[in-house]
Specification:
This protein is mostly beta strands. Helix content is 1%, strand content 50%. Among the domains are: 72-286, no CATH class; 295-413, Immunoglobulin-like, CATH 2.60.40.
């Protein structure tokens, strides 16, 4: 049971119970306390502006932008009406009468009187009359039952808190998969809200033997509204969702089914969208008759086209029951001149037409239940360059039943050159992209942290920096490494920047930001939090201290021009419940053209009756580290005004007259009407010493977070942020002319796979293009790219990096610091000329 809006991490604890596996998702309560009150985090929560129980107001959604028509629905054949089938062939009908099966006399999975929250029990063996139960192309002998209204055919409903939040279905490559969702929501058993339970039982009726699971008088968290519903599995593969009694809000739930790969399923209801659900309703799901069937995944893939080509692996599975089949491949391209090649992934041999002589390549025979992997290679034509893209639609059809077909989409872009830093699993990588080469560099292979950054430095090199939780200790240090533009690590081992060993104290360095001055010196700023038990005062559970630090490195990173220096002045300790204290977050760092480092951050003042959020700034000389402008409030700092400030983003700027300036973008929230707070994106123009030149200029009114900005090579400025509208997230961007007037209206970037967007990073190339990268905000499995050329032409968005097939949420790029300017390194091989 999680309080609204509170982010937490979970662990899985495994308990053996009469041969079954019971999985409870229990929060680390002490860690949650520390995270919630103390740890520096990005104020990237789009709901941060609203108090508990208060609803945000959203702007009217604008028309869909260019490329929106490319978005792929997860279900390749939507079964959104009774009688229509999904891709596999399942149909549903809710016109019948309820035939309730009382399971309360059967076996209790979660017993009355117990307190159960976010738990899964299994495996539970199906009875002989039901075993095996076929669901999509697989047959199952065991099931898993979750307290949150899920029945799974494997343990994926227990992975990484997979069942905690109800999701749309189907959802590709996500946990959970292969499940039935009669009423999936954050449910609770006991806890003073109900005396419910979950049971299973068996029986027989006119349809045959059945197995039933009943959720009896459970409720949502923090609610006394009772819910009683069940799943009934029949021996012939049909199944029922039945609802005896439903009360309270019935719009916040998922009702539907999903296959083992998350690419096929039926969504009956998702958070109010879909069919009406009421007490006394029954939904019957019927599998198809045996036949030939086609399945392929992923449904959408994107990738960079470098060195003239890009390749994609497409998995084609024979899910039919009629034996071997052959699958024909037919591709169409959105752009002329591109060559499309099909290869057998196993032997890298080209696929040919082995069947009807229609000229279409095919897979050759694929046995029932087997998966064939075809590699699709896209080769660009001569004369196309940066910004060109191509969308290929691949049609896959059964040779035995041509009506059994589906489409997958493959998209490629010729990228502008840029560098990217990201984490996958426990490794940190940097990728260097250009039209000719892509270099992937393993920066660190045992990453234990949550934040990192990348920046360009002199001689076309790059610096990467990250936090690292030292194994077996209670402290976190910062490490960095340098990479050449040829993709070579310039250090044998990462260099350690901070050393936080301190007895009896937990010392953590977080959220490093990095910038490079024109003379090459490199500044790094970060937040340090110190936590420890106060052994001198038994009434004090925990003492905490937090400050911002700065260090400056020489251009090659080998020397400290400025050793780590505390720039904020929190010298005392505080503990839970203290007021009149400061907390820091959202650092932004940039270098001006006259060799100054500018630092901005969010400073929160926690008072007895409110929390005031302001922006502070400081300026330091890049050569010596001396203070040019002492740390001070940039915004009002008045605890009694109606304004809060968030998400500062700094960028150096040269105006049309050649004057050097700094631009500071940030969000301002007007709380004068508590029931309708107004969020605005504004910017101020600063002198290079940090003094204000132009106060506040309004750019946009609307909810958003996570801004980033960069001056482009042609003098314009690119600004991007994550826009929160109609309960989803998308990237918004705006290009400003060199006189700071808008070059065009605000435009929006929608992820081609329909996932919500996370915080965006902005960089540039040498040809006047703005480059945006971001990740999906919910599952952290995709990284996206888009660019805007000098003429305003948009390329993308493209999902160009994916976590592994079936992977967990392990792909992450940095919040606002995930990309950097990159000067490509090319190697040319000249022809040899014989000499006489």
């Amino acid at each position: 049971m999680i309080p609204p809006g509170q982010p937490v991490r979970f662990r899985s604890s495994f308990h053996r119970n009469e041969g079954n596996l019971k999985i409870n998702f229990l929060p680390f309560k002490l860690l949650i306390l520390l995270l919630f009150f103390y740890l520096p985090v990005s104020s990237s929560n789009p709901m941060r502006a609203f108090s508990q129980g208060q609803s945000p107001k959203f702007d009217e959604a604008p028309p869909l932008p260019r490329g929106k028509e490319k978005i792929i629905l997860n279900s390749v054949r939507a079964a959104d009406s009774a009688g229509l089938a999904d891709q596999y062939g399942y149909t549903w009908d809710d016109g019948g009468l309820i035939d309730w099966k009382d399971a309360t006399t059967g076996t209790a999975i979660f017993s009355p009187g117990s307190f159960v929250d976010d738990s899964v029990v299994g495996p539970i063996s199906l009875p002989a009359g039901i075993d095996p139960f076929q669901f999509y192309e697989y047959k199952y002998s065991q099931i898993y039952i979750g307290s949150n209204g899920l029945l799974g055919f494997n343990d994926s409903i227990s992975h990484d808190g997979a069942s905690l939040e109800n999701l749309p279905v189907p959802l590709d490559y996500e946990h959970p998969q292969s499940f039935l969702a009669p009423f999936w929501d954050d449910l609770l058993i006991g806890g003073g809200y109900n005396t419910g339970a979950v049971y299973w039982d068996t029986g027989q009726d006119t349809y045959g033997e059945y197995f039933v699971v009943e959720w009896y008088e459970v409720s949502r968290v923090f609610s006394n509204d009772l819910l009683t519903f069940e799943v009934v599995l029949y021996e012939d593969g049909t199944f029922l969702f039945q609802f005896l009694n439903l009360s309270g809000d019935l719009n916040s739930a998922t009702i539907g089914i999903e296959d083992s790969d998350g690419v096929d399923g039926i969504q009956y209801l998702y958070n109010g969208a879909g069919e009406l659900i009421t007490s006394g309703k029954a939904i019957r799901f019927t599998p198809p008759s045996p036949g030939f069937r086609t399945k392929a995944f992923p449904l959408y893939q994107g990738g960079m086209n470098t060195a003239g080509r890009s390749s994609f692996d497409v998995y084609i599975r024979n899910t039919g029951e009629q034996g071997s089949d052959i699958y024909n491949l037919d591709a169409t391209s959105s752009e002329p001149g591109w060559q499309i090649l099909f290869l057998n992934r196993k032997g890298y041999t080209y696929l040919m037409d082995t069947t009807s002589g229609d000229g279409l390549p095919d897979t050759g025979p694929v046995s029932a239940g087997e998966t064939f992997t075809v590699t699709v290679e896209l080769q660009k034509p001569l004369g196309v360059g940066v910004g060109s893209n191509n969308l290929v639609t691949l049609n896959i059809s059964s040779d035995n039943d041509p009506g059994e077909e589906l489409d997958v989409q493959l998209e490629t872009i010729i990228p502008a050159p840029f560098a990217l830093i990201y984490r996958e699993g426990q490794r940190i990588y940097s990728d260097l992209y250009s039209t000719v080469n892509t270099y992937t560099i393993l920066e660190h292979q045992e990453f234990r942290g949550s934040s990192f950054a990348i920046s360009s430095i002199p001689d076309a090199n790059l610096i990467s920096i990250w936090e690292h939780n030292e194994l077996g200790t209670s402290y976190t240090n910062l490490y960095y490494t340098l990479v050449s533009n040829a993709g070579l690590l310039l250090y044998d081992q990462p260099h350690q920047l901070t050393d936080n060993y301190e007895p009896d104290t937990d010392v953590r360095d977080f959220t490093p930001v990095v910038a490079t001055a024109p003379d090459g010196n490199i500044a790094v700023a970060w937040i340090r939090i110190r936590m420890g038990l106060d052994f001198n005062d038994p009434n004090t559970f925990l003492k905490v201290n937090q400050n911002i630090f700065l260090a400056i490195l020489s251009p090659d990173g080998s020397q400290l021009v400025l050793p780590e220096t505390k720039i904020t002045d929190q010298s005392g300790w505080y503990q839970p419940g203290d007021t009149d204290i400061q907390q820091f977050e959202n650092l932004s760092l940039s270098a001006s053209a006259d060799e100054n480092f500018h630092l901005a951050w969010v400073e929160k003042h926690i008072l007895l009756d409110r929390t005031i959020t302001d922006i502070a700034q400081a300026v330091f000389d890049a050569d010596s580290g001396s203070t040019v402008r002492s740390p001070a409030m940039f915004t009002s700092g008045n605890p009694y005004d109606d304004f809060d400030y968030f998400d500062p983003a700094l960028t150096s700027f040269t105006d049309t007259s050649g004057q050097m300036r700094m631009l500071l973008f940030y969000f301002l929230q007007d709380n004068s009407d508590p029931g309708n707070p107004v969020s605005q994106l504004v910017f101020s123009v600063l002198q290079t010493d940090g003094s204000i030149d132009v106060q506040q200029t309004l750019l946009h009114t609307g909810n958003g977070y996570g801004s980033d900005a960069d001056q482009l090579s042609d003098g314009r400025v690119a600004l991007a942020w994550t826009d929160f509208v109609t309960e989803s997230e998308r990237v918004a961007y705006l290009i400003l002319n060199q006189d700071l007037s808008p070059a065009a209206q605000i435009d929006y970037l929608y992820n081609p796979d329909g996932r919500p967007s996370g915080i965006v990073s902005v960089t540039h190339d040498g040809a006047g293009s703005a480059i945006f990268t971001w990740m999906d905000s919910k599952w952290f499995q995709r990284i996206y790219y888009a660019s805007v050329g000098g003429g305003g032409e948009l390329t993308g968005p493209l999902a160009f990096r994916h976590s592994g097939q079936g992977g967990v949420s392990n792909l992450q790029t940095s919040y606002g610091l995930g990309n950097a300017y990159y000067v490509p390194w090319y190697r040319y091989f000249l022809p040899l000329t014989p000499r006489d």
